[in-house]
Amino acid sequence: MGMILGFRLARREQLSSLLASPEQIFDFLDDDTDEEDAGSEDMLDLDKAWHGLHFLLTGTDWGGKPPLNFIVAGGEAIGDEDVGYGPARAFTPEQLAELSRALDAISSDALRQRFDPAKMMELDIYPSIWDRDPADDDTLGYVLDYFEMLKPFLRKGAEQGLGLIAYMS
């Protein structure tokens, strides 16, 4: 299966509750009956494109400056509950609004110009597929498709005044 990064929108009171009682994170991430149509609308996973997208946003493997390093850093750890690969991280509604504005200012074309397969392989950007022949496997297109799903997802959450949970499973 591999490492998959997921995002879930959350109301401010849900974030507070999770930070106060981190063991609730498992039920929260498993519960898609919270609202009538919760399902896919309040959740988004970046599949295995997360690390490639982090690289395109920050130019680094695990670093970068906030808010653009939010895929691998930032937010507040929800206790030390391991949800797959470490604890989930909570971003406040204000932080989500900042993330959304930052990503809205970046185009897919700008990210396309930052694509550096050799550097991505050298930095061991997960999954190590970046040197594949684009004719056989459009790895850049794969990452940009997720970027184009992420922007409206974050924008919708920000417009609704919601926060964000990031988790790796």
Overview of the molecule:
With 169 residues, this protein is α+β, with helices and mostly antiparallel strands. It has a single domain, classed as YfbM-like super family (Hypothetical protein yfbM fold, 3-Layer(aba) Sandwich). It has 8 helices and 5 strands. A 5-stranded antiparallel sheet has the order 2-1-5-4-3. It is globular and about 45 Å long. Mean pLDDT is 94; it is low at 34-39. Pfam families: DUF1877. This is DUF1877 domain-containing protein.
Compact summary:
This protein is an alpha+beta fold and 169 residues long. It is 44% helix and 12% strand. Strands 2-1-5-4-3 form a 5-stranded antiparallel sheet.
Mass-distribution shape: globular
Strand arrangement in the largest pleated sheet: 2-1-5-4-3
User: Strand-and-helix sequence, N→C?
Assistant: EHHHEHEEHHHHE
Strand content: 5-15%
Give short descriptive properties of this protein.
about 170 residues, 5-stranded antiparallel β-sheet, globular, alpha+beta, about 45% helix, single chain, Hypothetical protein yfbM fold, about 10% strand
